[in-house]
Every structure is written in C-alpha cells, then in structure tokens.
Specification:
Blueprint: H1 42-54, E1 76-80, H2 88-92, E2 97-101, H3 102-115
Antiparallel strand pairs: 1-2
C-alpha cells in the first residue's frame, strides 16, 4: 500500500492477480440439487441403517466387512444401484440400495457411472 492507496487513485503497481480459482462446473440435473438435503433427514438415516442391517454390514461388491465411520476404506456406504439423479422414487426405493465399502464406492462405482455403465 503506497501513499496513494485509499485516496481514490490507483496504486502504482496495479492490482495483484486473484488467488481464487473458480469452482468447476457441475452437471445440471433435473430439479437442481434439492435432493442432496434428503441425505440429512431422519428418514434417510432409518433407511440407511435398515439396508446395512439387511446386508449384514458386508460390502455387496467386494465382500469385506464394513465399519462405521467416514474415512476408513472399509467404511459403510449405502449405494444407489441405479443412479437416482433426483428421482424420489429411485432415491427412497430400498430395493435400489445396497451396502458397499467407501473405497469401492469412491473408485470403481464412480468409474462405472462416468462410463454410463451404472
């Protein structure tokens, strides 16, 4: 900040480039992102627990035993078999859900969805 800063005159060095990078664009989905709030409802918590109990806390893709928590590779994730893309009927359908491990969900499942195979 030089002597001219704050007096309505530009600084002699100009402005620094912005360090903020724009967020990457996300695919637009029908109905926007309103469905993301469904994951924080008590209804989802009950359904998630029901699916994990039904599947005996075992990953349906790899067979590994699941643990509670969020960061472990074998953390329990309830996966939509057919992507719901905001469709409430698919989102809440218990037959469209299965227990999987976080590592498989975050790697293989995402790869399949990007290829359009899931």
């Amino acid at each position: 900040m030089g002597r001219l800063a704050g007096r309505g005159l530009p600084g002699r060095l100009g402005s620094a480039p912005s360090r903020v990078t724009p967020a990457p664009e996300r695919r637009a989905e029908p109905g926007g992102d309103a469905w993301r709030k469904w994951y924080s409802t008590a209804r989802w918590a009950r359904l998630r627990r029901k699916v994990l109990t039904r599947d005996l806390w075992v990953c349906q893709a790899t067979g590994v035993a699941l643990v509670s928590g969020r960061t472990a590779p074998n953390a329990a994730v309830v996966d939509h078999i057919r992507p719901h893309r905001g469709n409430p009927a698919l989102f809440w359908d218990e037959r469209n859900l299965r227990a999987v491990c976080k590592q498989w969900h975050d790697s293989e499942k995402q790869r399949l969805e990007k290829r359009g195979l899931a």
